Amino acid sequence: MVAGTEAVSGEDAALSVRGLTVDLPKGMERTHAVENISFDLKRGQILCIIGESGSGKSVTANTIMGLLPKLIPVSSGAIHLDGTAIIGAPAKKLRGLRGRIVSMIFQDPLSALNPLMTVGEQITEVLTAHGVGTKASRRNRAIELLTEVGLPDPELMYYQYPFRLSGGQRQRVMIAMALALEPTVLIADEPTTALDVTTQAQILKLIRDIQRRKGMSVMFITHDFGVVAEIADSVVVMEKGRVVEQGTAEQVLKSPTHPYTQRLIAAVPHLTGKDRAVQEKASNETILKVEGLSKTYRSGSALFGSQRIVPAVKDVSFELAAGRTLGVVGESGSGKSSLGRLLIKLQDSDGGRILFEGRDIAKLSESEFRPLRPRIQMIFQDPFASLNPRSTIGQILTVGPVAHGMPYAQAREEARGLLAHVGLDAGAFGRYPHEFSGGQRQRIGIARALMFKPKLLIADEAVSALDVSIQAQILKLLDQIQRETGVSMIFITHDLRVASQICDEIAVMQKGRIVEHGPPSQIFLNPQSAYTRELVAAIPGERPKDTQPIAVNS
Amino acid sequence: MRGFLLNRLSQSLVLLLIVSVIGFVVLNLIPGGPLAQFGLDPSMTQDDLNRLKEQLGLNRPLWIQYMDWAWRLVQGDWGHSFRDGAPVLDVIGRHLVATLLLMGSSTVIAIAIGTWIGIRGATHRYSVFDYLATVGAMVALSIPTFWFGLVGIYVFSLRLGWLPAGNMYTIGDGSALNYLHHLIMPSIVLALVHVAIWSRYMRTATLDVISQEFVKTARAKGLSERRILMKHVVGNALLPMITLAGMQLPSVLTGALVTETVFTWPGMGRLFLDSLGYSDYPVVMGLLMFSAILVVLCNLIADIVVAIIDPRIRLS
Questions:
Q1: How many whole angstroms separate alpha carbon A483 and alpha carbon A465?
Q2: How high is the pLDDT of residue B40?
Q3: What is this structure's pTM?
Q4: Closest chain B residue by Cα to residue A91
Q5: B4, B152, B278, B245: which is closest to A306 by C-alpha?
Q6: Which B positions 200-259 lie with beta carbon below 8 A of chain A?
Q7: A310 pairs with which residues across the strands?
Q8: Which helix (H) or strand (E) segment is A518 a member of?
Q9: Which of A429, A513, B101, B246 is the most buried (most CB within 10 A)?
Q10: Which residue(s) pair with A185 in the sheet?
Q11: What does the pLDDT look like over B148-167, one tens digit per residue?
């Protein structure tokens, strides 16, 4: 029954997985979610499980927690948690282990906390569930934990509801909750993926500090080799439900042996301090000039005094030359996406000018702007949500140009040509979006934008939802398209590493303002503003040459 | 919160204004009018009718009639019944308790049973119980209330003789038990369709919450399934249901109208039908405004309750 070795490798493994196979329901693309995987998490170590989406890393974590849906059963294998066999253990016993011996933190701190319960209630609940302490002692413990994870004003925090906290603070609450009973093993499932890069750096540091202080064992699931380099003692690489490589962090990162690991590491975008080679088609002609652009959001009612005013974009100015790419980089709430929406006039600006080919489009009404719309196109973040599931790819590509007066026969020919151009089969024309993978859909999104032969492409987090290997391909495609068509690009992203790959110039935004603007060499090697320095220092796994690593403030 | 309340209140007032105008106009567009019944009486001359018209103020332009009526309404004078000259508010008041009793008891039944069926259907999805509940809800939704009423009367009153076939109490017996005995069948009949609606919404809401991340967090904390359900799922699932309860009220009111007719229940529903038959416009308009105020008020209360329970609204 049990594949692999029977023996648990002695006392030094806090968690040992042997020959684990978990089935998928019939009709899925493969028969097993994970197949015959084995690894050990040594006591007092951080083990990173890395893989792209669909590699089975989250299924592994849920199996260890005993949280698998009934639909996907464990078919064979053994898991020992602190010496206790958990496969086949009764539900009640498993429940006793959860939160006490093993706890878990999740990817999205915004949805992982109950919105109707205070932070304090949610922490003390762990203690209550396992019958620990009295009411007063549980409260004290909760406040102690809130202090430990570095939340401000723990006494007050105890009575706060989650919606009042930022993403980073909520993740700290999750960590406090997970630590409540000092578990032997902490499972962290992409705990920093949904966070801003500076917050990510703080949370990684917190997890590492706590792990060291308590000698806890941590199983850390991630898709980001930067994070692995930052905290891992040992690494397990998973692909399509199998473990393809495992070893110490040093071994796997420096000298990967399996081709998949090698490919994956090669695809990781790194900060390049080098500026991009000037495009042949680039010229000095300015295509877009933005002067003093502002946008303020107002919500609620001014009449009843409940109005909220949020300045999203404040006095932003920049220039973009034809055939060049400007990266707009910032954390969530920095105003970078608002800027994108203003430029494509999905929203009206409050002040300032947008000179597109010398003409101020900020003032234009919707009907006056419509003839110009084809020339400015957008590529969206979510390749799953931005394509109408009920339209064929052909319809998606041709509907816009036909509406702008192109004969259908011509539109169809151009669409087929573009599909081939972005690396898709011409047969894609008659198929529906759900038949394509995320990367393919993003190619369709790019083809859709290119149908209009735009002068300016605005890509809003266009590769953020994609796995690294796909990300690298899409970036390459965008680069190639720019070289061929001479289109200008505004590349909005939260990921400095990605920005450094594709941009000629980078504008760093913070709280609606551009705080620094310059070529990548300046931004990454010689940042002028304190905020840029902080951002660059927070990038996981990067120690750019010629710069001193800057201490991450927690 | 204060701004929110003021905002909702002003919206409600505008809504009431619109309802009153539409009601008034439509009522006066109906051919016949309040004096049609006298036209059949051979002893009434045209002079008599004109005098009556003048007396009741019906010879003035419609908008003046409306302004006059609306101004009095605001001051608390809802006019007098054409039938017996009694103040409209008194007439409504006499029938109000009966209707509220019926609506209240059937709402309690609908919410209690509907919530239970909904939660159980969600936690035991695709079980025999879930299928039966689904089919049952479809049946309850597709069969009209009066049919249930008539079948109920046939089975439980005529055949079995367990429950009274109509009225609110037996004349000469005013005990609470007697009232209760009379209340059972109409309130259950009225509740049936609402149990169905409530259970379907509750099932969906519960399924929504169960798939949320924080429920997984609760499992990861080692909480018992029972505690997860009670503490994390039900509270969050009930939140949208409060708004639903407010929105369901008009439909309960309409249902009460039908049910009261079937069970000769002396409530507002029957008063409404009778008054329409007599073209008793002041009472009809009074009932219309009264139910509009009731509905608006209940929606307002539902919003306030949600705001009180949900910290995201309460504190922002």
A1: 25
A2: 66
A3: 0.80
A4: B224
A5: B4
A6: 212-214, 216-224, 227, 231-232, 235-236, 239
A7: A297
A8: strand A513-518
A9: B246
A10: A102, A217
A11: 889 988 999 888 888 888 77
